[in-house]
Specification:
Layout: H1 31-42, H2 52-55, H3 59-75, H4 80-93, H5 97-110, H6 114-122, H7 131-146, H8 151-186
Helix pairs in contact: 1-3, 3-8, 4-5, 4-7, 4-8, 7-8
Length: 204
């Protein structure tokens, strides 16, 4: 599913379209960039893609962002189902194709109802969620739209995830908005191997 044949999966709408910060040629990378790329390839991600393509322009920042992301994705106290669902909520909010097309299938695989992911993709509120999924959706949505959470929403998340879980859920939402913004600026497209329906931008 290359981005030139699936128009909706390329990031950004300016014409003529171009990926602004693609993978540098190996011969153009400095030693710090090569070291950062090698570390990503050797780590759990097994490659350089997504936000790490533009982040290669700042290898030290890449390293620190990667470590935060590794914890949130692979080590957080939150269940994988909640992590993946909250990531989808963040990706939908900022209309980021890369994160959506990567994490929507992972959310379904982790146990989020496929109908819930499709509703989210269409801009509707998912129905039929488990109680902890509902708490995560309310928390992430309220945080994204109001930049904070009300007492009822906070207390529901606290009951579902505990204090550490609430901290990690808020940080996860912020992390994925951050890397999505970077890819939105860089026009980083979805991976060529991505499957599924891309996002359509909400009207302004």
């Amino acid at each position: 599913m290359p981005h030139d044949t699936l128009q909706g999966a390329r990031q950004g709408s300016t014409e003529p379209w171009r990926e602004r910060l693609p993978m540098p040629a190996p011969s153009d990378m400095n030693p710090a960039q090569r070291e950062a790329a090698d570390a990503l390839i050797a780590g759990p991600r097994k490659g350089v893609y997504g936000p790490f393509l533009p982040l290669l322009r700042s290898p030290q920042l890449l390293d620190r962002v990667a470590k935060v992301g590794e914890y949130l994705r692979f080590e957080s106290v939150l269940d994988a189902r909640i992590r993946e669902f909250a990531t989808c909520v963040a990706a939908r909010h900022v209309t980021n194709q890369f994160e959506w097309l990567m994490h929507a299938p992972l959310a379904v695989k982790a146990g989020v109802p496929e109908s819930a992911i499709e509703a989210l993709r269409a801009g509707a509120r998912p129905k039929g969620l488990a109680a902890d999924e509902e708490a995560a959706l309310d928390f992430a949505t309220e945080l994204l739209h109001t930049h904070g959470t009300s007492e009822p929403t906070y207390n529901a998340a606290l009951g579902a995830f505990g204090e550490q879980g609430v901290v990690e859920l808020a940080t996860l939402v912020g992390y994925f908005v951050m890397v999505s913004w970077l890819m939105n600026v860089a026009h980083t497209p979805a991976q060529a191997t991505a499957q599924g329906a891309p996002l359509q931008a909400f009207p302004l």
